[in-house]
């Protein structure tokens, strides 16, 4: 998992993450970003399986 940093896009709104967030909040946003990526990938696999 890639940890997000200030300036990276927020997984909730897409705006750049601002400075000053706690380490815990950055970790939570990183987990959210990873979860969203995993859901998108799962959806792509599901679409491909349905096409076969």
Commentary on this structure:
It is a single chain. The protein is an all-alpha fold. 56% of the residues lie in helices and 0% in strands. It contains 1 helix and no strands. The protein has one helix at residues 23-51. The radius of gyration is 14 Å and the shape is elongated.
Q: Segments where pLDDT lies below 50 for 5+ residues?
A: none
Number of helices: 1
The overall pLDDT, averaged over residues, is: 87
User: SSE order, as H and E?
Assistant: H
Number of strands: 0
Quaternary form? single chain
The biggest beta sheet, please? none
Helix content: 55-70%
N/C terminus separation: 31 Å
Proportion of beta-strand residues: under 5%
Global outline = elongated
Overall SS class: mainly alpha
The radius of gyration over CA amounts to 14 Å
